[in-house]
UniProtKB/TrEMBL annotation:
Organism annotation: Denticeps clupeoides
Family matches, as PANTHER family: HYDROLASE, ISOCHORISMATASE DOMAIN-CONTAINING PROTEIN 1
Family of the protein in this entry: Belongs to the isochorismatase family.
Protein name: Isochorismatase domain-containing protein 1
Span of domain Isochorismatase-like: 101-232
Gene3D superfamilies per the UniProt record, alphabetical: Isochorismatase-like (3.40.50.850)
Length: 249
């Protein structure tokens, strides 16, 4: 239950701590990991060391100390949270091994064709990515956003042999069926991510994957948005969030 004294418009008071700093704030009731990461970045972005991975911890009254954020956690009442750097450097991005890599193709659907900038170009690059994945034996996971209304993946994208094609109504591709598919693939370390839209589904998928310990490589010339500014806003976050844009040029 949300705190009745500090909550307004269904927002819940939270104390967000990083390093020696602590700042009171609020987030919408029901907010999960992704929203909390965004909140920490908005407050402490300039202080965050981009060469580290981080974990969010919740203060537990039962244990009298901070504990790692439980899986599936959602804000429901006033609480204390802290962002903690792990004592390890992020493995240098850019080195991909087929045996430890999975390709994610996000929402490359027919109804997006007239709305997305350079859609023809990203289809062309996406085709090459799928062909390369098949040649190298890299598993492919494909999402379709509300296919009943937005259509299936465009015909130009050959989905022969993909591991999973699944419908979704959320922004992120990281849903239970995807996590189950990843668990079936031994030793996955890196995700190559491409599709639309850059500042929404691609960004939320990248943040979810990073939060689960994966290295994320976004193919810059196989992603796009409805307008250039949305894509630029997402690109400006890449260093803080810890994912790497790559190009096939």
């Amino acid at each position: 239950m949300a705190d009745a004294h500090g909550s307004s418009n269904n927002h819940v008071p939270v104390l967000l701590s990083f390093s020696e700093f602590s700042r009171p704030s609020s987030v919408a009731a029901g907010s999960g990991y992704e929203v909390l990461i965004q909140k920490f970045l908005s407050i402490y972005g300039q202080q965050i060391d981009v060469h580290r991975k981080f974990v969010i911890q919740l203060f537990s009254d039962e244990w009298g100390q901070f504990i790692d954020l439980p899986k599936g956690f959602a804000i429901s009442e006033r609480c204390k949270l802290r962002l903690v750097p792990l004592q390890m450097d992020i493995t240098t991005l850019g080195n991909l091994t087929p045996a430890t890599t999975v390709f994610f193709c996000c929402d490359m659907q027919e109804r997006f064709r007239p709305a997305i900038k350079y859609f023809g170009d990203i289809i062309s690059v996406g085709q090459r990515l799928l062909q390369g994945a098949r040649i190298l034996g890299i598993p492919i996971i494909v999402s379709e956003q509300y296919p009943k209304g937005l259509g299936a993946t465009v015909q130009e994208m050959d989905l022969t042999g993909v591991k999973l094609v699944f419908p979704k109504t959320k922004f992120s591709m990281v849903l239970p069926e995807v996590e189950a598919a990843l668990a079936e693939i031994h030793g996955v370390r890196s995700i190559v991510l491409f599709g639309v839209e850059t500042h929404v589904c691609i960004q939320q998928t990248a943040l979810d994957l990073i939060g689960r310990g994966f290295e994320v490589h976004i193919v810059a010339d196989a992603t796009s948005s409805r307008n250039f500014m949305d894509e630029m806003k997402m690109n400006n976050r890449k260093n803080i969030c810890g994912f790497s844009p790559v190009s096939l040029d």
